[in-house]
Amino acid sequence: MKKAMEKLQHLLDLGGIKKDMTLLVISGIAVICSLLKFQPLPFDMAWFAIVLCGLPIILEAIIGLVTAFDIKADVLVSLALIASLCIGETFAAGEVAFIMQLGALLEELTVAKARAGIEKLVHLTPQTARVLRDGKEAVIPAEQVKVGDRLRVLPGESIPVDGVILAGQTSINQAVMTGESLPVDKAAGDTVSSGTVNQFGAFEMEATKVGEDSSIQRMIRLVQSADAGKAKIVGIADRWATWIVVIALTAAALTWLITGQIIRAVTILVVFCPCALVLATPTAIMAAIGNATKHGFLVREGDALERLAKAKVIAFDKTGTLTYGTPEVVAVRSVSPSLKEADINRLAACAEQFSEHPLGKAIVHCYRKTGAELLPAEDFEMIPGRGVCARVEGRTVLAGNPEMMREHHIALKNADDAQDYLSQGSTVIYVAVDDAFAGFLALSDTMRKESAATIAALSSLGVQPVLLTGDHENAAKAIGDKLHIGEVRANCLPEDKLKAIGDYQAQSLPVCMIGDGVNDAPALKKADVGIAMGGVGSDIAVDAADIALVDDEVKELPHLIALSKRMMTTIKVNMTFSMTLNFIAIVLAMVGTLNPVVGALVHNAGSVLVIANSAFLLKWRKKAW
Hints:
Elements: H1 2-15, H2 21-35, H3 46-68, H4 73-86, H5 90-109, H6 117-124, E1 128-133, E2 136-141, E3 150-153, E4 162-167, E5 170-173, H7 175-178, E6 184-186, E7 191-192, E8 197-198, E9 203-209, H8 215-228, H9 236-239, H10 241-259, H11 262-271, H12 275-294, E10 297-299, H13 304-308, E11 313-316, H14 318-322, E12 323-334, H15 341-352, H16 358-368, E13 377-383, E14 387-392, E15 395-400, H17 402-407, H18 416-423, E16 427-433, E17 436-447, H19 451-460, E18 464-468, H20 473-483, E19 487-489, H21 494-506, E20 511-515, H22 521-526, E21 529-533, H23 539-544, E22 547-549, H24 557-590, H25 596-615
Parallel strand pairs: 11-18, 11-20, 18-19, 20-21, 21-22
Antiparallel strand pairs: 1-2, 1-3, 3-9, 4-7, 4-9, 5-6, 5-8, 10-22, 12-17, 13-14, 14-15, 15-16, 16-17
């Protein structure tokens, strides 16, 4: 019997009766025609609504009762429909069926959309690896790499497994794992992770973690486990359905026994139908989603705003969220008496003009913004993991890290100021001219102008901001201090962010996570609500999130939080009103004041008022913080 019911449910879903807007429109027209006594056919037009809308409700109620003894709101609706038909009140039956299916349609429009985040993560997994065996290079499937194998990784390739560099120097883009905006220089002895990208020099490495143990595979499992552990909110009408059914049946039975009039009992069942209660939540959610859309938010999960209203902690990734995620020159210093700061800036920019390194590109970009022209650079050489060398204006210019200066026997004298910028989380590029240290440029990820005001507004709404970032501690602390964020966690890998969110949730503190990178995907899934930066963020982060901020205007985040709280207030008002109206109508039905048709109209009016109240959310905005 259970299998038969499950098959029937499957056929019902395939038919799409609840989801078909055309059938709902036909039913609505039929109910109106029945109310106006317009009967162009030899039967009551309300039968269209009863068959198209009522039959699915009755079937679902039966399936739920038989397969799992699951009492939901549709059980009471089914009783009201059958009772109304038994006494010949077809309009009441049709009207109730139509309103309930309208509520179901609204709920369908707000449920979660299909997400492909995990599949996209899988696509990030390198498919092949270059293995060195017996002095020869062979390309094999990445899953066949064994611990201890010696691999070669060329520029531009993804690293197939976790390992340790044996020979070579390079820069690795680790954004997929840590979210860091700048590539990290690597040399022999340094560890590398699967899925990260080798940007410049070729290197050889030894595999240490392969297959399911590799970093990218661990991230995939984190995303899967976080998604499975997120609870789904049950509709309030279904949550209270058992009590509603018991009260309605008891009231109807007692009224019938005391008065002997079955029509009063049927009227009680009709007016007790939780139509307004069913509409209370989805109409408010849809109106709030419409409001959020106008402010740049794409709400991908129907109950995301309901969860967001309960958030006590809002966790930010730094790069690309509170900052722009692109480095800029924040300071130029000269230690040479013959060279001014403008000279250091010009020589460094000219030397870096052919560089593919993000720091080199940033130096050139910032120099060009001044309107100055780049001078020719000769004998250009890019040294992976170190910097660049070139001849500019007839002088030899080196621009790179301290290791490059040491290898060229250049002492970094009078470079104390550089330590100040390093302590603030900046990256320093040292410049030498004709084998003498001449100065340095400090580069830093720039903070969004609106970040400070956004954090202050969120705090005023009673939400605690925290910073979870893969950047180094100095950079993270500097941003935290500027924005007055009390809790900062640096050097966070995906599992660290996941653990931090789990810690808050263990303290019964609902968490909203805001991020933009692939490394944020597990945390976005794990959080009670995940918000992804849709403009600069990766597709995987967006797919993992419940809400996407399409235009990256973080200044709108306080509005979203306030809107979610306002939405919950509207839902509570809607539910209070609908239940109060139902109980008043029950009393009037008991004393015989209401008949089934008038009762149906009364509870229909309640549904309209609930929708009207929810509609005010469409243009709502908090005037001041």
